[in-house]
């Protein structure tokens, strides 16, 4: 029958490795037949299942329920088998068989380097018995449209001179052969995994790699030869000299094959002069020691269903390919080291060594622990191995005078093992750097060496912008250096085991590691069946295989403190088996976590909540601070596996999270931190097409014309229609740019995670006490010193000091130390404008990664408060009373009269001693200073209620399924459920296209006789009034005061939040220098301002723009009391002052109660200055498109857009669960129901003679 006409080119189970096989006929894979009965049966199961899930999920929350989801998924799995009988009556392609994932492989084990002596092993240089084929051999590559086409040439010694020469390691997508594809959830090869798994498309591009490698004669004498692929895939099929060697899946762990017999057979054929045509062809083309290696790598296999991580789908040999020469007949095959702390300064060591064959008579194992402190008792042992035994162990060896390993003080000790023959010859030597460390959960807390830790973590992917998954040691070291600079102490290997060198670097430099199995089936969530594979017994062996691959390779690393079963794959019996495997294998009893399960313990249909009863740690993703509060009483540690999604201008509510994580309240002691998602943007620079080998160097082309986007970085969909479009720039969600340039939120994370809390108390006579609370778990503060500087509103440094040490005895972990400073008073002319003290804690000495004087922690304190512009009334605190700016006394004007000159009825002119103002249709359109007579305004003062959308503003159901915006009824339902993006809701309300309609305008005089203009406007969209605004312009002698009252219309009450409420205008291009009193010096927003202290700061206008991958709202400044834009040459400019006498909103709090009229913690205005308009920022998809609009010179000639907002929406990413990871906390929203908003803006022209800020110090 046709169903039996499947490929037999590859050996099935039972066929011996090395057996020759015939060429594969080109046949399509037998796909699941789309019969009516199959679809109807599955629909009959799926529909009631989905209805039950939607209707009953809330009813089951919080109590034990029957495991109906597991039962349904098992029925679906068995039903698929019954409806597809040919799957069982025919032999299947191994790349579509979930029960075939490894053939001919050596079992996984700890890394082995096969040194010849203890000294070689201790030096940890290159091993004489290992050859890297990426550096010693040339690789030829050809891409075929299908696996069947590739199989025709897999073992033939055809002329490959016309094939391209490629580097290894590499991914062929990064070399221009096919475009890379990005998806977050869906599988790029099927939208119906429920029906199609484990099958993959027959159009399955397959790359064939060929190289010739040499085996030295001494390697073949009494030794075995192995091929090791450190990572490749998603699957590889291997041939050597035309003989089939094996098959492997799991693209992120090693695949090791023993090829000794094949090489020996080849040598025998040569010696005997075999008449085999294949052998004659081989022998004529190769030297005696040369061999042909062929590797076929398909784009898809059944294992691809288990590797649906939120990343680029890249294929190839992306880690090194090596040849290992292993001692024979007996060698060290594996080893396990358990180094546990004991009494203070002591530890115990257990070593278990597995041998590759039974030991011969007289064999011994000798081990020694190096780098112990002088005078320590030597840790050394020589063990005689009983003949016939295949292993040896040394248990509970006591070691004294040692230091324990932790991320703060990562002390490692080299352990050298030697396997000796009976005559004393060293057969093999290995070295592993161990740390004495314990980890466990005690009293609901994760503890290292018996002490609870706070996890300052980041999710880290392996991705390079031009090399893809082929990363180098330098790439890893750079990431670790930046992590340490940002006060991170932990990483989660998302979502697969990382490069072996990564673990060594984490051991060496001190990072806690969550090691995660290469399992993610997120794409099944689109079919409401995310747990399908976890509940299928036919996939269980593959789940266990991937878990064991992870465990065996990294089991000896001190940095690995937690195992993770995978990511976003639901829950089922297969995961329970994986946990049991880790429990029974790991002698260190490290905790096992898993996010994909739910609290009820049943299978999951769409998304887990991180509270599964089988997880030792509660590890939800994107649960806001208010959501994790109830978990504190669970009795398990709470560590968010993902939180604060860092896509674009994001990472709000960090202070709220970290106030809980650092809290000394026992009620919150189990809230122990989390891992930010994610470390770096994943944008790529991709060649358009393959180049000749002379131009080919791992993703590097000669000219920008050889690249997509002219050599600029791109994201999903940028590299052609097959590169993924639905998730687009969701790959750009890191704290770092793709080139590892920190985004502003990186500095916020550094601040909230800093290991020392600083407080300040001012005493009499200029004495200041700075209190330092040590947040370290294990170390004192004797490695840091105190630096400080004092400045006033002029920006000049008044006083400073450096290098003040901290006494170790007074700064042990958890205690407080104080430093006394003597500071001078502010200058008499600026004493009303404030004084600030900046304190920095710096390293006294350089570390392996960080230089001396590196800033570990810092804070700025207001020593002298600026004088309020108005007297503070009694009662509740107000938003902003205004603050005195640094103005110098000006000479008295010749006339203090303010004159109103009626140029025309619609264009009056106001002349005052300090300015000349012109109005048109009751709008301020011109403002000049008499000192320079230069125009200050480029566009009139007017209201603004929209912002260039951030990435989080764009996120919602319409972001992923844009068609929903074309269905009016559905659009309204989604908005009412809060599932529509902010941007879509704002556009539906017309906030992006508002017009001001003048209703009334009236001139009068104040009590002092100055002109007063009252204006009333309606702000309309499509003829509907959205806001009513009342202005009161008071034209004083030196400044114009604008009192503003804004009332929102009821038609906006359906909106969850407004983007902003404030004024906008444009000023002259020459006003390019910015000084302000507010949060700074970096970007800050109402829900993310922790790294930006309130003080006087300065900078350039152009320096405030942030090049996020997608242009958006950026560069904001929070809690601004005044801001000045000046000409850096002339010194004149415009001063803007802000005051608001409405009640101040409360400080931010973890319960996330709605704030009043403004976001929580608001104590001033939100300022933004930019050369770019909102429409320009909104319309561009890439930052390079924005930057290419104007040359740097032309950009500086553009007016400066200025926004001054009395209320501004936070940037979001606090999260309301995984399905709303972009959400802004309610307390940082601007509800349209909270009107009216009342505030005052003062506009004052300034000159170099009156403006005291020079900006030299702050």
Note poorly predicted spans. Answer: 1-34, 54-65, 279-288, 693-699
Number of helices: 23
Overall 3D form: globular
Main β-sheet: number of strands, strand sense, barrel status? 10 strands, antiparallel
Amount of beta strand: 25-35%
Task: Report helical residue fraction.
Answer: 10-25%
Query: What structural category characterises the helix and strand content?
Result: alpha+beta
**Average residue-wise pLDDT:** 88
Radius of gyration: 34 Å
Walk me through the topology:
Blueprint lengths: L35 H25 L7 H15 L3 H4 L12 E2 L14 H6 L6 E3 H4 L2 E6 L2 H5 L12 E3 L14 E3 L9 H4 L9 E9 L8 E7 L5 E6 L2 E7 L5 E4 L1 H13 L4 H9 L4 E9 L12 E3 L7 E7 L4 E10 L4 E10 L8 E6 L9 E6 L6 E10 L12 E8 L5 E9 L4 E4 L2 E4 L2 E2 L2 E6 L12 H13 L4 E4 L6 H10 L2 E5 L23 H15 L5 E5 L8 H13 L6 E2 L31 H4 L9 E6 L10 H8 L9 E6 L67 H9 L3 E7 L4 E8 L9 E9 L4 E9 L10 E7 L12 E9 L11 E10 L13 E3 L18 E3 L7 E4 L2 E6 L2 E6 L8 E8 L6 H4 L2 H4 L7 H9 L5 H8 L5 E11 L5 E11 L2 E12 L4 E9 L11 E8 L5 E8 L12 E8 L16 E4 L1 E5 L6 E11 L21 E6 L3 H6 L3 H5 L4 H5 L3 E9 L28 E10 L12
Parallel strand pairs: 24-25, 24-30, 25-26, 26-27, 27-28, 29-30
Antiparallel strand pairs: 1-9, 2-13, 3-4, 3-6, 5-12, 6-11, 7-10, 7-13, 8-9, 8-11, 14-15, 15-18, 16-17, 16-19, 19-20, 21-22, 22-23, 31-32, 32-35, 33-34, 33-36, 36-37, 38-53, 39-40, 40-41, 41-42, 43-48, 44-45, 45-46, 46-47, 47-56, 48-55, 49-50, 49-52, 51-54, 52-53, 53-56, 54-55
Helix pairs in contact: 1-2, 10-11, 12-13
């Amino acid at each position: 029958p046709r169903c039996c006409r499947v490929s037999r080119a590859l050996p099935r189970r039972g066929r011996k490795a090395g057996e020759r096989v015939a060429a594969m006929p080109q046949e399509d894979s037998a796909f699941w037949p789309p019969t009516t009965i199959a679809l109807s049966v599955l629909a009959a199961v799926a529909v009631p299942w989905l209805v039950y899930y939607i209707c009953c999920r809330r009813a089951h929350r919080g109590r034990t329920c029957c495991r109906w989801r597991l039962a349904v998924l098992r029925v679906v799995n068995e039903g698929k088998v019954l409806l597809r009988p040919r799957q069982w009556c025919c032999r299947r392609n191994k790349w579509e068989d979930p029960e075939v994932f490894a053939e001919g492989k050596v079992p996984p084990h700890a890394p082995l380097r096969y040194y010849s002596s203890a000294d070689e092993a201790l030096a940890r240089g290159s091993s004489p018995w290992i050859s890297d084929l990426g550096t010693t051999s040339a690789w030829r590559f050809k891409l075929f449209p299908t696996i069947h086409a590739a199989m025709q040439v897999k073992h033939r010694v055809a002329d490959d001179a016309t094939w391209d020469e490629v580097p290894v390691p590499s991914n062929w997508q990064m070399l221009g052969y096919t475009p890379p594809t990005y998806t977050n959830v869906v599988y790029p090869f099927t939208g119906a995994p429920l029906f199609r798994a484990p099958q993959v498309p027959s159009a399955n591009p397959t790359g064939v790699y060929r190289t010739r490698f040499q085996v030295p004669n001494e390697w073949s004498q009494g030794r075995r030869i192995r091929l090791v692929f450190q990572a490749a895939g998603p699957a590889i099929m291997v041939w050597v000299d035309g003989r089939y060697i094996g098959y492997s899946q799991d693209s992120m762990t090693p695949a090791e094959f023993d090829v000794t017999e094949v090489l020996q057979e080849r040598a025998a054929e040569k010696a005997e002069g075999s008449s085999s045509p294949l052998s004659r062809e081989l022998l004529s083309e190769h030297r005696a020691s040369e061999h042909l290696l062929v590797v076929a790598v398909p784009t898809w296999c059944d294992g691809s269903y288990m590797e649906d991580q939120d990343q680029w789908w890249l294929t190839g040999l992306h880690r090194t390919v090596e040849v290992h020469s292993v001692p024979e007949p007996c060698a060290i095959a594996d080893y396990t080291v358990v180094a546990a702390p004991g009494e203070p300064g002591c530890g115990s060591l257990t070593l278990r060594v597995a041998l590759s064959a039974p030991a011969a008579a007289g064999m011994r194992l000798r081990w020694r622990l190096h780098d112990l402190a002088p005078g320590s008792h030597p840790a050394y042992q020589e063990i005689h191995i009983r003949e016939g035994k295949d292993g040896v162990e040394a248990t509970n060896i006591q070691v004294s005078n040692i230091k324990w390993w932790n991320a703060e003080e990562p002390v490692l000790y080299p352990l050298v093992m030697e396997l000796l023959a009976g005559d004393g010859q060293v057969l093999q030597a290995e070295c592993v750097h161990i740390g004495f460390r314990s980890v466990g959960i005690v009293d609901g807390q994760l503890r290292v060496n018996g002490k609870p830790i706070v996890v300052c973590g980041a999710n880290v992917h392996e991705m390079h912008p031009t090399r893809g998954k082929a990363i180098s040691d330098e790439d890893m070291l750079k990431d670790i250096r930046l992590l340490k600079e940002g006060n991170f102490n932990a990483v989660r290997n998302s979502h697969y085991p990382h490069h072996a060198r990564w673990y060594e670097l984490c051991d060496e430099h001190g990072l806690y590691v969550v090691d995660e199995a290469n399992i993610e089936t997120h794409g099944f969530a689109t079919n409401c069946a995310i747990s399908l594979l976890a509940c299928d017994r036919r996939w269980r062996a593959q789940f266990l295989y991937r878990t064991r691959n992870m465990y065996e390779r990294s089991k000896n690393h001190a940095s690995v403190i937690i195992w993770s079963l995978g990511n976003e794959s639901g829950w089922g019996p297969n995961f329970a088996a994986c946990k049991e495997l880790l429990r029974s294998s790991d002698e260190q009893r490290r905790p096992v976590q898993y996010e994909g399960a739910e609290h009820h313990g049943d299978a999951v249909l769409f998304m887990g909540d991180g509270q599964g009863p089988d997880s030792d740690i509660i590890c939800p993703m994107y649960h806001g601070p208010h959501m994790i509060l109830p978990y504190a009483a669970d009795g398990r540690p709470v560590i968010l596996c993902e939180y604060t999604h860092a896509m674009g201008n994001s990472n709000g509510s960090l202070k709220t999270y970290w106030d809980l994580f650092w809290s000394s309240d026992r009620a919150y002691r189990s809230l122990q931190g989390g891992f930010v998602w994610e470390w770096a943007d994943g944008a790529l620079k991709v060649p358009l097409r393959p180049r000749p080998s002379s131009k080919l160097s791992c993703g590097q082309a000669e000219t920008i014309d050889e690249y997509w986007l002219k050599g600029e970085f791109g994201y999903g969909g940028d590299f052609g229609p097959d590169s993924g479009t639905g998730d687009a720039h969701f790959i750009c969600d890191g704290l770092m740019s793709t080139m590892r340039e920190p985004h502003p939120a990186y500095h916020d994370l550094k601040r909230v995670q800093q290991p020392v809390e600083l407080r300040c108390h001012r005493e009499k006579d200029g004495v200041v006490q700075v209190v330092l609370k040590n947040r370290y778990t294990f170390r004192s503060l004797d490695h840091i010193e105190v630096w400080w500087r004092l400045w006033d509103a002029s920006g000049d440094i008044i006083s400073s000091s450096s290098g003040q040490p901290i006494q170790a005895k007074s700064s042990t972990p958890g205690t407080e130390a104080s430093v006394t400073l003597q500071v001078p008073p502010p200058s008499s002319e600026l004493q009303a404008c404030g004084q600030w003290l900046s304190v920095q804690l710096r390293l006294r000495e350089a570390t392996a990664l960080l230089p001396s004087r590196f800033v570990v922690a810092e804070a700025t304190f207001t020593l002298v408060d600026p004088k309020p512009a108005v007297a503070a009334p009694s009662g509740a605190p107000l938003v902003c009373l205004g603050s005195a700016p640094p103005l110098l006394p000006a000479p008295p004007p010749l006339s203090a009269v303010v004159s109103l000159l009626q140029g025309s009825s619609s264009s009056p002119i106001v002349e005052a001693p300090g300015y000349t103002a012109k109005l048109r249709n009751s709008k301020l359109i011109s403002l000049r200073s008499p000192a320079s007579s230069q125009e200050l305004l480029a566009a009139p003062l007017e209201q603004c209620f929209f912002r260039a959308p951030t990435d989080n503003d764009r996120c919602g159901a319409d972001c992923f399924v844009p068609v929903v915006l074309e269905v009016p009824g559905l659009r309204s339902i989604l908005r009412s459920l809060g599932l529509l993006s902010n941007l879509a809701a704002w556009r539906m309300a017309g906030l992006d296209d508002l017009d001001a309609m003048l209703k009334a305008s009236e001139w009068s005089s104040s009590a002092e006789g100055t002109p007063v203009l009252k204006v009333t406007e309606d702000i309309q969209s499509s003829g509907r009034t959205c806001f009513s605004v009342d202005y009161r312009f008071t034209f004083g002698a030196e400044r114009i005061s604008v009192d503003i009252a804004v009332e929102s219309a009821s038609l906006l009450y359906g909106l969850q939040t407004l983007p902003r409420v404030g004024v906008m205008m444009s000023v002259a291009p020459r006003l390019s220098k910015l000084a302000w009193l507010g949060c700074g010096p970096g970007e800050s927003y109402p829900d993310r301002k922790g790294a930006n202290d309130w003080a006087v700061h300065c900078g350039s206008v152009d320096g405030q723009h942030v090049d996020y991958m997608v242009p958006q709202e950026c560069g904001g400044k929070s809690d601004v009391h005044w801001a000045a834009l000046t000409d850096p040459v002339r010194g004149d400019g415009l001063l803007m002052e802000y005051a608001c006498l409405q009640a101040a909103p409360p400080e931010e709090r973890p319960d996330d109660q709605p704030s009043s009229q403004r976001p929580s913690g608001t104590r001033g205005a939100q300022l933004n200055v930019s050369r770019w308009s909102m429409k320009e920022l909104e319309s561009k998809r890439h930052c390079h498109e924005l930057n290419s609009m104007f040359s740097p010179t032309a950009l500086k000639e553009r007016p400066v857009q200025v926004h001054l907002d009395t209320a501004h929406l936070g940037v979001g990413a606090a999260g309301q669960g995984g399905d709303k990871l972009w959400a802004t906390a309610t307390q940082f929203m601007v509800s349209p129901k909270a009107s009216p908003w009342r505030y005052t803006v003062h506009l004052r022209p300034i000159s170099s003679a009156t403006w005291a800020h020079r900006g030299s110090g702050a």
